[in-house]
Records
---
Amino acid sequence: NFITSVLLLSVFVFLASTAFVFGAAWDADPGDLPDTTIKEVVINGINWLVGIVATVSVIIVLVGGVLWVTAGGDEERAKTARRYLVAGLAGLAVALGAWAIVRVITQTLFP
């Protein structure tokens, strides 16, 4: 049976790949933690949030573009698509502005 052979092959490949993990050398000290400051953690968190907002904004712009292309002359769908595009571009502008503000503040206050 094809499904049985594929299943057995995947189990074999999985079990064979775990052997490499046990052969790996671990020479790091478990107590060796990174020495990041609170400032760096906050900046990294804000940068992550800005990245997430920018990604969602780009997805909203893409959805608006698809709605616009598929409107087919329907004015109501074109208005909805226009609202998506404006909201997505506004979100992208907010994300870019937030990134710029954080960058200016961190470079000014913490050189």
---
Amino acid sequence: MLEPVVATFMTRSPVTVTLDAPFKQVACALLVSDASAVPVLTEDGRPIGVITESDLLANLEYHGGIDPPPLLGGATARRRRRKAAAHTARELMSSPVDTIGVNAPISAAVCRLTRPGAPPLCVLDDEQRLAGLLTKRDLIAIYRRPDADIAANVRAAVTTDRSRPARTPADLTVQVENGVVSLAGQLTYRSQVQHAIMAASRVAGAVSVHSSLRYDIDDLLVTGF
């Protein structure tokens, strides 16, 4: 099954800043950017950090670093107070930067971006230079994939089972409407039915999977799995 890669959904040519960019320049960069963060680049174009909206808002929260952090705020509050007093991108940014390859499967990015508090991913080309930025908002664009593309990926996925002889595509009916996948037909083994449902659910852009697949042999009853 061909899975879309990060390059398909990333924001290309994102707004960036240098290490010595002053606070106001960083704020303006965020305002003109379509993303919720701006990468900080070295002179040779390599990302060294990232600055989010939250990093900038620490300045408002602690009034430029004048206010003390809460007594029970812990390390997070102390770190935000330090950022509140920042004057340059170097002091504002979070580092090391989270990166991913331009040709990495989109599923790898999903696993990382959906973690609580995960920052945007800087997308690197083969020379480890910035090629784009991938945000949670970019991932939502997965659901813009045409139903026909999703259906083609599902057909490729559900007719391939390395552990059992594959049935032909004629044994299956795949329909996709508004991202909802419907599977129908007859397979040899119950395990193939489960494989088909699982594989279809992992296709990028699939909202849900409805299955009316049938099977000839309950191999799971025999194996116990």
---
Amino acid sequence: MKTHDKIRVLREAQKITQEDLAEKLCMSASGYSKIERGETQLSIGRLQQIADILSVSVFELMPNGGGIIQTLNGAYHFNGTFNQYGDNEKQNVEKLEVQINYLKQIIEQKDKEIAIQKELLDMYRSCSSN
């Protein structure tokens, strides 16, 4: 199923009108209807906005196979296809995210310990110089 078809199906399933979704996207209803007809190339940002409103991930809106392209002006656009991750890859990504968060917490703790040790060292130096 193509991205614009998925968007329409999800919107209808949630009983959201095109007008309501267009309003949430700060665009005209006719502009939004072009998205659902596949007449408008979606930027990644716009796709993310739609996914957020429909409470789904961007990956759920993308069809299988293909990718994201970057234009000469630096903007990223969805070219109509995307490599969808399998359950195994999703689980691996989730595990890595948990590990990253854990390591960030450890770094924060170490930074606090270093700050305390620096304070103690400064206090020791000031006491020993007196």
